[in-house]
Specification:
It is a single chain. The protein is mainly alpha-helical and 202 residues long. It has two domains: 1-50, Arc Repressor Mutant, subunit A (Orthogonal Bundle), CATH 1.10.10; 68-193, Orthogonal Bundle (Tetracycline Repressor, domain 2). It is built from ten helices and no strands. Helix 1 (5-21) packs across helix 4 and helix 8 crosses helix 9. The longest helix is centred in the last third of the chain and has 28 residues, at 122-149. It starts with a helix and ends in a 15-residue tail after the last helix.
């Protein structure tokens, strides 16, 4: 039997939309198959389990982000601090567009999944951690460059990068809880004020 790549794509796109718009636990394989227009046999041909599908969804969205607005935000042609501003703007307009279309904010898929399953599924928790680590590395690289250029004073760039990522995820979560993307626009710029000092050796 020849595999139809469009079948896998439909399953993946449907699951991604459902997981992001609702939740992982709330969505069943039958519903995914029905909405994607595929048989369960086709589903299991591509994805041995719902967990495998979730792993693929995470990879798919992470790849879109890495080659989409994240790549644009962290473009090396932009001055380091402007990259942080671009990231906040991108998060705001992404959430606002979703709210305008669907009437509600979807939040961050990775943050949503982490809140829902990280204490119950070690495999998916590790997968999500890898995504967050890559995101933190983008901030880390930007901060290192900012220090090197003298745009900011020396600091603990690794810890500050993690704090910035946590702040961004937290702002998006707060905005989702209020169903108001303006929270991202108003609070987001404060990301540039986050600073963790380097620990001095005693």
């Amino acid at each position: 039997m020849r595999s139809d790549p469009t079948t896998r794509t439909r399953i993946l796109a449907t699951a991604r939309e459902l997981f992001h718009g609702r939740s992982y636990a709330d969505v069943g394989i039958k519903e995914i198959c029905d909405l994607a227009g595929v048989q369960k046999g086709s589903f299991y041909h591509f994805f041995p389990s719902k967990q495998d599908l979730a792993m693929a969804v995470i990879d798919d969205m992470a790849d879109d982000w890495a080659h989409g607005f994240v790549a644009e935000a962290f473009d090396h042609q932009l001055p380091p601090l402007e990259r942080l501003e671009y990231m906040i703007d991108a998060a705001y307009y992404w959430q606002k567009a979703a709210k305008d279309i669907e009437g509600r904010m979807p939040g961050c898929l990775f943050g949503n999944l982490a809140l829902e399953i990280s204490t119950r599924d070690e495999v998916l928790r590790a997968k999500l951690n890898a995504v967050f680590d890559k995101a933190s590395a983008r901030f880390h690289e930007t901060l290192d460059e900012a220090v090197e250029l003298g745009a900011i004073a020396p600091l603990d760039t690794a810890a500050t990068a993690q704090a910035m990522l946590a702040f961004l995820e937290g702002v998006i979560l707060l905005a989702k809880s209020r169903n108001d993307p303006e929270v991202v626009r108003v609070l987001g710029p404060a990301i540039k004020t986050i600073r963790i000092e380097s620990r001095r050796e005693s």
